[in-house]
Each structure stands twice: as C-alpha cells, then as structure tokens.
Amino acid sequence: MADNIERNLKHPVWNVYEHMRTSRLNVLYYTSKLQFYGRLQLFMQIILAATVPSSAIAGFEIWDFGIGKYAWEILVVLSSIIAFAQPFLGLQKKIKKIDEIVVGYKILYFDLQDIRHKIEEDQAYLKSHKKLHQSAKDRRKKLEIKETGLRYNGRLNRKCQKLAAIELPAKKFYIPKEI
Questions:
Q1: Domain tally for the chain?
Q2: Residue 174 buriedness (CB in 10 A; 0-12 / 13-18 / 19+)
C-alpha cells in the first residue's frame, strides 16, 4: 500500500491539483481581504455621515448630556481622523485591485476544475491536459504580477490553507494509473 501512495504522490497530475488548490486558497484569501477592506470603508463612511452637523444623528439630544457628550466628542475626533486619513489609505484602489485579483483567481480555479474533470473523464493525464494546464500557469503568472504591492497576512493565509485543504482533500483527486 505504501508503494502505491508513493507512486501516486509523484504522478505529474498532482501539479494540476496543487495548482487548483493554490488557486482556491487565493480565492479564499483575497475574498477575505476584500471583505475586510469593504467593511472598513463602510465603517468609515458611516462615521463620517453620522457626524456631519446636518445629519439627523447629530441632532439627537443624547449628545448634550453626561456620557453622551463625551461619546459625541470621541465620534467627532474619530471622524476628523478618518476624514484626514481616508485619502492616504487608498481603500478604493485596494478594493478595485483585490476585486480584480479575486475574479482572476476564480476564473483560474474554474478552469483548473475543468481540467480536473477532463482528466477524470479520460482516466488519463494526456498532452491536451498538460497544454491546458500550461495555459492556466501562464494566466497565474499575470495574476501574481497584479498582487505586487499588496500586504501579505500570514495568519489569514494559514487559515485559508486549512479551508482549501478541507474543501479539496487529496483523497478526492483522481490519479491515473500510468504516467
């Protein structure tokens, strides 16, 4: 049994499957980053909208007495900091860039799934599959270039690796008999 497992782990089809898992990992990773930046932007917009003098919230009487007065002062200070920092954070650009990366990795992931299904249908890893995989690798290079300048989050990456491994366990992949 151990020899069979060893042979399977060395089969070149694993390149396709590892590439597919990595693409799924990147979809999960960048989707999480996109959600974080989207929530941050929403939070900042809510604070700014709530603290403008013409907002209905600014007119609440709760802000005139006791703890409400201090809470309002904190909100106004926070709003001032957000208004100052927002242009420097470049959230819109980051969100747009990450969204493009997510879409690119999703397309790549689905293309690799198609290759996987073709391998299973043909019950072999053929030259046509290798050619499709090479095209997928070329597209991945372009996506990796787009990632330039984005901050890496190791903890988030490890979390997403675990999720990708659960979604795509190695035992579910078809390994052709011959090389």
A1: 1
A2: middle
Residues in the chain: 179
Confirm whether 179 is domain-assigned: no
Look up residue 68 and give its two tokens. 């409400």
Structure confidence at residue 1 (pLDDT): 33
In a domain, 109, yes or no: yes
Determine the structural domain holding residue 19 and report its residue range: 2-172
Residue 177 lies in a domain: no
pLDDT at residue 103 is higher than 90 = yes
Split at pLDDT 50, 70, 90, the class of 3 is very low
Torsion sign across C-alpha atoms 140, 143, 144, 150:
negative
**Cβ 136 vs Cβ 167: under 8 Å:** no
Q: Across residues 86-112, what is the average pLDDT?
A: 96
Rg from Cα positions in the chain: 24
